[in-house]
Specification:
It is a single chain. The chain is α+β, with helices and mostly antiparallel strands. The protein has two domains: 21-177, no CATH class; 185-487, no CATH class. It is built from eight helices and 29 strands. A ten-stranded antiparallel beta sheet has the order 1-6-7-8-9-10-2-3-4-5. Strands 24, 25, 26, 27 and 28 form a five-stranded antiparallel beta sheet that branches. 17% of the residues lie in helices and 42% in strands. This is Lipoprotein.
Length: 488
């Protein structure tokens, strides 16, 4: 009987486990699959209350836009604040309440009357960009944030008004963009980092960071604006990344910080760890909506490099010392490809093979540009810890949309090189209307005509010496107008 009991229990356990799906890694939430709850907030909601979260930044017209109005949500459709959006994609996730509010708003959820461990969040996106995040905190209650205000809405119906789509079909841009022409609009935020160098006496200079905002209307009227540091979009609004230098026990320590952009308070809400026994310098190799790839360079009191390491971190937990693994971002397939690429790199470098570490460090990777695309690169250290030698290798898997939403070339790389042989990198708009080409010393804006680059560049921007791109985030159509306001 005991054997039969063990067999039955083992079989039951196998059946139960086989029905479970692996949980996708995310610092503050987990994706619920396969149950489809994306439209659990479908229907008509009335915005009946609000709470100001950031005093001094609230504009009355924003209050008037949302308060005492309806949100109407249907398949691929959203009406909110007088704005109408078609082809909307909805995504559902369950989040830890405390982590979600701290990471997105730095507020205590109990101050909003929420005393639950987990919440349901539904994001509404258009062309890969998040329009709103709706937080379902009760069966018939929603809240969402906009411009420093938290709005509360009560459900009035499971269905939207029958004629709402037809009534507003001529106003898909929303009231804020009615005065803008209907020509194709594209814009891109380009993050740039200048290369650091080490002098003969061992001193290492600082890297500089800046953001270019390049916008276009119908392949003309090209506008280019600039701001210091890296300004980048997130679900919760625009954020800013910078690097500051401190002295710790007589050693120089560079700290990468990120914070919400546009507010006077200078509180670092994320702060990467410090090292008290070495000088440490940090290069930002890549940044997207949710991730950052860093290169940490340590040198000792004699200014000799003792390590040069890669690390990828979630922006919502940038202070953690331990980096992510590719499996955290790309799943099991990413891990398999990383292992194969690692072994292939060691086998193909026979001169170094006996000196290299044979155990894969899954956390030692970064994100770089290669032939017009973002790509993964791994690093192998030497067994002897010789600070001057290491091996970088390509990890042959394309980054998924979890890492970077848009990474396509509307003009083939070979055609780009034909037009500009000195081009080192290129970025093209999802609208297929403009292209950004990078050479050693300049950035060029080209129009795209029938899949071909225009004969001559529309604009040219001089780059600083050895300046490289670490971010490219695109905005289309009405988002161009909204992103432009950030740079105004």
């Amino acid at each position: 009987m005991r054997k039969i009991y063990i067999i039955i229990m083992s079989f039951s356990l196998i059946v139960i486990l086989s029905g479970c799906n692996p949980i996708e890694f995310k610092s503050t939430s987990k994706i619920i699959s396969p149950e489809n709850k994306d439209l659990m907030i479908k229907g008509k909601w009335y915005i009946d209350d609000y709470k100001i979260m950031r005093h001094g930044k609230v504009k009355n017209h924003k209050l008037n836009k949302y308060l005492n109005t309806y949100i109407q949500i249907d398949n691929n459709f959203l009406y909110v604040g007088g704005d109408v959006y078609e082809d909307v994609k909805y995504k559902y996730r369950r989040v830890n309440t405390h982590n979600y509010f701290f990471n997105h708003s730095e507020i205590n959820p109990k101050g909003l009357g929420i005393d639950k461990d987990e919440l349901e969040v539904i994001s509404a996106s258009l062309e890969g960009k998040v329009l709103y995040e709706y937080i379902k905190y009760d069966e018939n209650k929603l809240m969402f944030f906009s411009d420093g205000i938290c709005y509360f809405a009560s459900k009035r119906s499971n269905l939207i008004d029958k004629d709402v789509r037809q009534s507003y079909s001529n106003n898909t841009m929303g009231e804020e963009t009615q005065d803008i022409d209907k020509n194709k609009r594209s814009g891109v935020m380009i993050g740039l980092r200048s290369q650091r160098n080490q002098s003969e006496n061992g001193d290492i200079n600082e890297s500089g960071y800046r953001t270019l905002w390049i916008s276009s209307t119908d392949k003309r009227d090209i506008k280019i604006k600039e701001k210091p540091n890296i300004i980048f979009p997130r679900i919760s609004g625009f954020w800013e990344l910078g690097v500051k230098k401190d002295l710790v026990n007589g050693y120089e320590n560079e700290t990468v910080y990120v914070k919400t952009y546009g507010y006077k308070e200078d509180k670092y809400i994320r702060d990467y760890f410090k090292d008290a026994d070495n000088n440490i310098y940090r290069n930002v190799n890549f940044i997207s909506n949710d991730y950052i790839a860093l290169e940490s360079i340590k040198n000792d009191k004699n200014k000799s490099i003792v390590s040069d390491e890669y690390v990828v971190l979630p922006l919502d937990n940038i202070q953690q010392e331990k980096g992510l693994k590719i499996v955290d971002i790309e799943g099991a397939e990413g891990k398999v490809v990383q292992e194969k690429s690692f072994k292939s790199a060691i086998e193909s470098n026979k001169d170094l093979k006996s000196k290299l570490e044979t155990n894969l460090n899954e956390e030692s990777f970064t994100v770089v540009r290669k032939n017009g695309h973002w790509a993964f690169k791994g690093r192998v250290r030497l067994k002897s810890n010789d600070e001057k030698l290491f091996l970088d290798y390509d990890i042959k898997i394309l980054p998924s949309k979890k890492l970077i939403i848009y990474d396509e070339l509307k003009v083939p790389w070979n055609k780009i090189k034909e037009r500009m042989p000195e081009a080192l990198d290129a970025y093209t708009s999802p609208n297929s209307d403009i292209a950004i080409l990078i050479s050693k010393n300049s950035l060029f804006v080209y129009s795209i005509e029938n899949g071909e680059l225009g004969e001559r560049p529309l604009k040219k921007v001089k780059l600083n010496e050895e300046e490289s791109v670490i971010m490219a985030e695109w905005a289309l159509d009405e988002f161009v107008y909204k992103w432009d306001k950030v740079f105004r």
